[in-house]
Amino acid sequence: MARPRATRERELKLAIPANFSLPELPGEPLEPRTLTSTYFDTPDRALARAGVTLRRRVENRKGLWQLKLPGKGERLELESPGGPAGPPADLADILVGILRGRGLENAAVLRTRRTGIRAKVDGRAVADVTVDRVAVLDGRRVRESFVELEAEALDGDGAGALPELGRALEEAGASPGDGRSKAFRAMGFFPLEPALPTRAAPALEHVRVALARQVAELLAHDPGTRFGEDVEELHQLRVATRRLRAILRAARDLLEPPWSEALRAELSWLASALGPVRDLDVLIERFKGEIVGLEPSERRAAARFIALLDEDRDAVRAAMLEAMSSPRYFQLLDRLEAAAVAPRARESDISLREIAGAEYRKLRTAVRALPPDPPDDDLHAVRIHGKRARYAAELAEGAVGKPARRFVQDAKRFQDVVGEHQDAVIAEERIRELLGRTGSPQAHLAAGRLIERERVRRLEAREAFPAAWDTLEKSGKKAWA
């Protein structure tokens, strides 16, 4: 199946009065356009809640389906041609995790009349600055209308020009918008995170909100993981999975054991499907950075290592996508959405401070039991205890306040140290395994150089460990005494 065309969308959206005129900007006028866009979503707005928009746009009688996925400071726009019967398969397949068999309905129809200029900086086109006059249609009747100003970067370099363009447009009378897309505005949809509970709220409410936030993260990164262009999407999906497991584990005294343990087991299954792909992403990026400094012959040999890792990744990614398209995964998402609304509780008077304190003390016991030169496996075990202590502290942060926030910050730095150590250990093990699959003399030389660098990193992490732990231990005493 052909992949949809993908572009990165970096833009500013600004509010303007009806009589707004574009200021004098260097550039060339754009050809006026009239676009009719039909947006689709489930009746309960599952796509909108995940920050996703799906539309079929018609211009000059030609139809094009567009799917926009959320990202940090930008959106990924995917395009495929197709008729009005429904989204083409290459886009529909990306949405199966969010939709899970739910049908799509017509959520909004917009007619947009667009004018503007292609703005230039130093003679180079950097962004399209457009005034969109939008009519929200109900059949042939205009239900409402609004005007919107956009400045969209033409490429990665153009994104750097957006702040200056934004200032010039605001000086001309524009003002910051509310960040919503045209579709969300037409639907009256406001993307909201779950409201943070007060410090005095019951512990179970803190747990519920924490679960809801991570379920939302998981769903938001599911489509991008399926498409597979940005490795950060899988990383964030895996982080959400790990946090959900950690929340359920930390809050186990507050939750019905059979219910929470079964959910944790399914999340563990999901993590086992995601982990191999993410681990290879990390190794590939690590090795790509490392081989730059090698001699040309060694660099060519090390490039073979990366090619082998790419082959391995293709295989485990196929297995991951199979798991993510299974009824088991869809049932897990259903259960997680239900948990985010009403987790199953049991009678308990334990506080979140007590939960986080208990996890910290387990970490402290593990660190104090380390010998002077601990084995790699012992440091890895400490790393796991550190993650559990950090996630329990994040769960308690809303109830405990500043001491918990400081502990979380120091726990992140502690995790960076022990995480770098573990990454170096794994990288060395993998280099040795790859060497067994390509045994040229140049490969041995390249492997030796790469292993030497990993051992330096491993030693540096061990040297940084005492100071990182000392800082975290002080924060722990203040937060959980």
Task: Please give a structural write-up.
With 481 residues, this protein is an alpha+beta fold. It has 3 domains: 5-187, Beta Barrel (Hypothetical Protein Pfu-838710-001); 193-342, CHAD domain (Alpha solenoid); 351-481, CHAD domain. 56% of the residues lie in helices and 19% in strands. The chain contains 14 helices and 11 strands. The chain has helices at 46-49, 89-92, 96-99, 162-171, 182-187, 203-227, 231-250, 257-290, 296-324, 327-341, 352-368, 376-400, 402-435, 441-480, and strands at residues 5-9, 11-15, 27-29, 33-41, 53-59, 62-70, 75-81, 105-121, 124-138, 141-153, 175-176. Strands 1, 2, 3, 4, 5, 6, 7, 8, 9, 10 and 11 form an 11-stranded antiparallel β-sheet that branches. Helix 7 (231-250) packs across helix 12 and helix 8 runs antiparallel to helix 9 (296-324). The model has no long low-confidence stretch (mean pLDDT 93).
> How is the biggest beta sheet arranged?
11 strands, antiparallel
Total number of beta strands: 11
What is the CATH class name of the largest domain? Mainly Beta
Beta-strand content estimate: 15-25%
Helix and strand element order? EEEEHEEEHHEEEHEHHHHHHHHHH
Given the structure, what is the number of helices?
Answer: 14
Quick structural overview:
The chain has 481 residues and is α+β, with helices and mostly antiparallel strands. Helices cover 56% and strands 19% of the residues. It folds into three domains: 5-187, Hypothetical Protein Pfu-838710-001 (Beta Barrel), CATH 2.40.320; 193-342, CHAD domain (Alpha solenoid); 351-481, CHAD domain (Alpha solenoid).
